[in-house]
Amino acid sequence: MTEDAAFISREFIFEELRFVGDFWNLIIVHQLRGGPRRFSEIEREVDGLNAVTLTNRLRLLIEEGMVERLKEPGKKAVAYTLTAKGRDLLPILNELWKFGQKHFDAKAWSLRQQPTSI
Predict the structure, then answer these.
(1) CB within 8 A of 26, min separation 6: which ones?
(2) What residue spans define the domains of the chain?
(3) What is the distance between the alpha carbons of residues 67 and 59, in angstroms, rounded to a whole number?
(4) I need a labelling partner for 66 at 20 to 30 A (CA). Which of 82, 87, 90, 109 fits?
């Protein structure tokens, strides 16, 4: 691999990690793993996630092709669901969960604070 190709490869990986590693993006993808969810359901079930942050992250996830916005014609209700690309993250989330179970005890996890914005 040439030096230029290695640099491009590193930059690509860093950019992907920046997006995928975002705390709220991962939490939202996790919340959508079981199927379509309404905005209010996601907001209610995730401690520390406010409406502005949720709105911004959903927009970003939609732009990136990870989440799709579902709206039935003639109805106000909107739901969000994972696309195939978004579902591709689920095995990664599962591996992160396994890693945490293996290497971190529950007490250490409970002492950590969730970021209020990223």
Answers:
(1) 20, 89, 93, 96
(2) 3-111
(3) 9
(4) 109
Tokens of 38: 């309404």
Helix orientation angle between 23-31 and 51-63, rounded to the nearest 10 degrees: 80
* Residue 83 burial class via C-beta count within 10 angstroms: exposed 0-12, middle 13-18, buried 19 and up: middle
Residue 12 token pair: 């690509």
> CA-CA distance, 2 to 7, in Å (whole number)?
9
Q: Is the pLDDT of residue 63 over 70?
A: yes
Q: What is the pLDDT of residue 57?
A: 94
pLDDT per residue over 20-30, tens digit each?
667 899 999 99
pLDDT at 118: 35
pLDDT of residue 17 exceeding 80, the answer is: no
